[in-house]
């Protein structure tokens, strides 16, 4: 286990996680679709944006809070939904939720969490600062399962639902095919029926068991009418994740989405898809303030979060770097990782003379 204090920037957790994890688990977490072009583009896009500092501004107190669905969130940083945290650490999502809670950060729990959603909520509420939880759904053929999970999440105190729209089937993850990847037997998507999940554990040489499971369980025929159906029955606001086209953002809002998440699934679905950051400004313009717009994909520094917030994101989600920290140092690692992001962001707000996250605008950045 790594001493979290060894890591001075979010990227420092990457090599520690690689050393801690079996190669096939590392490949599942780190890999993307195809030649992994979009994985690389997601983070490279941030490097092409400069910050334009202001001077002679009172920055003696910086305000990182943001507002989502009428509530004040302490930071605009959160954990993206990711399946099976127990592949990274035996305490899985319980540790992630405790770590995110200690950092006061939002945590979005995947439908494929390896801990019961009620237990995650209980673990989070014991954390020192605590932070909000949202629950993510895929479009399952068995719609009644989606509604059951939505009701359970509402009852357990989750504050929003996220429905992922970019996964009619799983992207072509070549590393997983090469490894004959299957979810390890001791790790289970315990919020879902064990018999239904069996195919996710069935190893076949040259194939990804997860891709096989997704083909069985995911509904590739879902359209905007299904979103209306879900919104009408959900006990919580529903955000749509996986939006890259401004026309889709508009359709999502027109069909009842309470928010959209600009995301290409961390480059794991369409290889060569536009980077999340490049897709953000047109989506923000199309939504025109009607609902919040969040972003994930390639956020590897507090600076990257600053750039996304300046380009119109209300909040920013972090994916793989949270699993790196979880693998390296458990709940303490997750809390430390999120604090590294937060502290970098806070420092930049002060140095750039832009002390309030909610007032960041496009004038804070320049292209090139
Ligand atoms: C190991 C792993 C599992 C994931 N599982 C899910 C999931 O269950 N549901 C989902 O909507 N997105 C899932 N994603 C995508 C993330 O929510 C997010 O879009 C992506 O990781 C953000 O990019 P980043 O990792 O570059 O920060 C997963 C990503 C990874 C790396
Ligand atoms: C067991 C079905 C698929 C889990 C998919 C998790 C995911 O979204 C990922 O990117 O991996």
TrEMBL record:
Residues 2-368 form the FMN hydroxy acid dehydrogenase domain. Glyoxylate binds at residues 28, 138, 173, 263, 265, 268. CDD domains: alpha_hydroxyacid_oxid_FMN (cd02809). PROSITE patterns: FMN_HYDROXY_ACID_DH_1, FMN_HYDROXY_ACID_DH_2. Pfam families: FMN_dh. The active site is at 265 (proton acceptor). Keywords: Flavoprotein, FMN, Oxidoreductase. FMN binds at residues 81-83, 110, 136, 164, 241, 296-300, 319-320. It comes from the Bacteria. One of its GO terms (molecular function) is FMN binding. The keyword Flavoprotein applies. PANTHER family: 2-HYDROXYACID OXIDASE 1, S -2-HYDROXY-ACID OXIDASE-RELATED. This is Alpha-hydroxy-acid oxidizing enzyme. It comes from Rugosimonospora africana.
């Amino acid at each position: 286990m790594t001493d979290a204090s060894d890591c001075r920037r979010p990227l420092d957790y990457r090599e520690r996680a690689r050393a801690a994890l079996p190669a096939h688990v590392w490949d599942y977490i780190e890999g993307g679709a195809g030649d992994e072009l979009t994985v690389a583009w997601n983070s490279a896009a941030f490097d092409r944006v400069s910050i334009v500092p202001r001077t002679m501004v009172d920055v003696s107190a910086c305000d990182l809070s943001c507002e989502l669905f009428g509530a004040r969130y302490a930071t605009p940083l959160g954990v993206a939904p990711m399946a099976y945290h127990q592949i990274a650490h035996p305490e899985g999502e319980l540790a992630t939720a405790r770590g995110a809670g200690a950092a006061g950060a939002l945590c979005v729990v995947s439908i494929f969490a390896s801990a019961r959603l009620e237990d995650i909520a209980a673990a989070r509420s014991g954390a020192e600062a605590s932070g909000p939880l949202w629950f993510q759904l895929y479009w399952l053929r068995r719609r009644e399962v989606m509604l059951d999970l939505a009701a359970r999440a509402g009852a357990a105190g989750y504050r929003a639902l996220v429905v992922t729209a970019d996964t009619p089937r799983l992207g072509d993850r070549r590393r997983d095919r090469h490894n004959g990847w299957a979810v390890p037997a001791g790790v289970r998507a315990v919020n879902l029926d064990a018999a239904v999940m069996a195919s996710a554990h069935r190893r076949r040489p040259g194939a990804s068991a997860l891709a096989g499971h997704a083909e069985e369980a995911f509904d590739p025929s879902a359209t905007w009418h299904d979103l209306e159906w879900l919104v009408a029955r959900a006990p919580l606001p529903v955000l749509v994740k996986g939006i890259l086209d401004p026309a889709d953002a508009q359709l999502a809002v027109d069909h009842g989405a309470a928010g959209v998440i600009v995301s290409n699934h961390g480059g794991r679905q369409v290889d060569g898809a536009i980077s999340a950051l490049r897709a953000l400004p047109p989506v923000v313009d199309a939504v025109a303030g009607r609902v919040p717009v969040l972003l994930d994909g390639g956020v590897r520094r507090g600076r990257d979060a600053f750039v996304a917030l300046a380009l119109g994101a209300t909040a920013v989600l972090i994916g793989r770097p949270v699993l790196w920290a979880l693998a390296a140092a458990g709940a303490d690692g997750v809390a430390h990782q999120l604090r590294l992001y937060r502290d970098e962001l806070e420092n930049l707000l002060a140095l750039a003379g832009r002390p309030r996250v909610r007032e960041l605008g496009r004038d804070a950045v320049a292209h090139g």
